[in-house]
Amino acid sequence: MTPRHFLKDDDLTPGEQAEVLALAADLKRTRHTAGAPMPLAGPRAVAVIFDKPSTRTRVSFSVGIAELGGYPLVIDAASSQLGRGEPIEDTTRVLDRQAAAIVWRTFGQDRIEAMAAVSRVPVVNALTDEYHPCQILADLQTVIERRGQLSGLTLTYLGDGANNMAHSYLLGGATAGMHVRIGSPESFQPAPAVLKRAAEIAAETGGSVLWTADAQAAADGTDVLATDTWVSMGQEGEYEARIAPFRPYAVDDDALARAAADAVVLHCLPAYRGKEIAASVIDGPQSAVWDEAENRLHAQKGLLTWLLERA
Ligand code: CP
Ligand code: NVA
């Protein structure tokens, strides 16, 4: 049987996304209770491979796989043959005979698609240049906790509209029936294909999507105010050139004042205070970033349980 993969946010239908988020909430509630589900009991191994650095993703998958009764096999690509150029397909065929699932943080989306094309076990995107769908599941769980719903809420993301977080907010937020606004410089707009796909999904879910260069209009009255680094992993060489264009899109006290009075502030972390987000905002009372980081654990446990047992 062909396994289900989670390579980008719209690999889950709206109904499936809601199921995963409900499972995540249950797993959070029952985390330390007897009888919590253990779909990886055995233990079965899950390979978690990193082509890029990570703190939250590494920790949350490792802890989550262990809590599901499994064994996290964390591999730094640089110390594996994958890092020396072994074909992705060959590595996958070795892993899928021994692991129950493969989680991969890598560069181009084409790489994880190549893995999924041959894998006999679920493949999960732990961040690519284009998408960060596990992060968005955690973000959506956090918003549900704070607001009790997703559908109909407005989520504004300010900053690099062309990066993985912007793309995943568009697809994942539209899937949840949210009104997603991306405020970014003209030269850092979301990929047109992603905007188009998100608009198609929103037309079905009752949400909407908007890109604008007007940061103030984007933040106006929003329920959720999110941002991300202006310099993603792999872009370090462009650091100086990238900072200036993004300054008007900082999530600072002015941006927060434009949002709804009880707006929830999100940031996937790591954060750069004084750049994309002011210290007063990320460390202030409306910030949900620590719950958001913890929810990586619960959301990914929900996702793995769903992929292994319910899909
Ligand atoms: N948010 C996130 O994915 O963090 P890490 O890069 O530390 O995994
Ligand atoms: N856009 C960031 C997200 C980090 C979790 C990056 O890709 O580096």
From TrEMBL:
<protein>
    <recommendedName>
        <fullName>Ornithine carbamoyltransferase</fullName>
        <ecNumber>2.1.3.3</ecNumber>
    </recommendedName>
</protein>
<keyword id="KW-0808">Transferase</keyword>
<comment type="pathway">
    <text>Amino-acid biosynthesis; L-arginine biosynthesis; L-arginine from L-ornithine and carbamoyl phosphate: step 1/3.</text>
</comment>
<feature type="binding site">
    <location>
        <begin position="132"/>
        <end position="135"/>
    </location>
    <ligand>
        <name>carbamoyl phosphate</name>
    </ligand>
</feature>
<feature type="binding site">
    <location>
        <position position="228"/>
    </location>
    <ligand>
        <name>L-ornithine</name>
    </ligand>
</feature>
<dbReference type="InterPro" id="IPR006130">
    <property type="entry name" value="Asp/Orn_carbamoylTrfase"/>
</dbReference>
<feature type="binding site">
    <location>
        <begin position="268"/>
        <end position="269"/>
    </location>
    <ligand>
        <name>carbamoyl phosphate</name>
    </ligand>
</feature>
<feature type="binding site">
    <location>
        <begin position="54"/>
        <end position="57"/>
    </location>
    <ligand>
        <name>carbamoyl phosphate</name>
    </ligand>
</feature>
<feature type="binding site">
    <location>
        <position position="81"/>
    </location>
    <ligand>
        <name>carbamoyl phosphate</name>
    </ligand>
</feature>
<dbReference type="InterPro" id="IPR024904">
    <property type="entry name" value="OTCase_ArgI"/>
</dbReference>
<dbReference type="Pfam" id="PF02729">
    <property type="entry name" value="OTCace_N"/>
</dbReference>
<feature type="binding site">
    <location>
        <position position="296"/>
    </location>
    <ligand>
        <name>carbamoyl phosphate</name>
    </ligand>
</feature>
<feature type="binding site">
    <location>
        <position position="105"/>
    </location>
    <ligand>
        <name>carbamoyl phosphate</name>
    </ligand>
</feature>
<feature type="domain" description="Aspartate/ornithine carbamoyltransferase carbamoyl-P binding">
    <location>
        <begin position="4"/>
        <end position="145"/>
    </location>
</feature>
<dbReference type="Pfam" id="PF00185">
    <property type="entry name" value="OTCace"/>
</dbReference>
<feature type="domain" description="Aspartate/ornithine carbamoyltransferase Asp/Orn-binding">
    <location>
        <begin position="152"/>
        <end position="307"/>
    </location>
</feature>
<comment type="similarity">
    <text>Belongs to the aspartate/ornithine carbamoyltransferase superfamily. OTCase family.</text>
</comment>
<feature type="binding site">
    <location>
        <position position="164"/>
    </location>
    <ligand>
        <name>L-ornithine</name>
    </ligand>
</feature>
<dbReference type="InterPro" id="IPR002292">
    <property type="entry name" value="Orn/put_carbamltrans"/>
</dbReference>
<feature type="binding site">
    <location>
        <begin position="232"/>
        <end position="233"/>
    </location>
    <ligand>
        <name>L-ornithine</name>
    </ligand>
</feature>
<dbReference type="InterPro" id="IPR006131">
    <property type="entry name" value="Asp_carbamoyltransf_Asp/Orn-bd"/>
</dbReference>
<dbReference type="InterPro" id="IPR006132">
    <property type="entry name" value="Asp/Orn_carbamoyltranf_P-bd"/>
</dbReference>
<keyword id="KW-0963">Cytoplasm</keyword>
<dbReference type="InterPro" id="IPR036901">
    <property type="entry name" value="Asp/Orn_carbamoylTrfase_sf"/>
</dbReference>
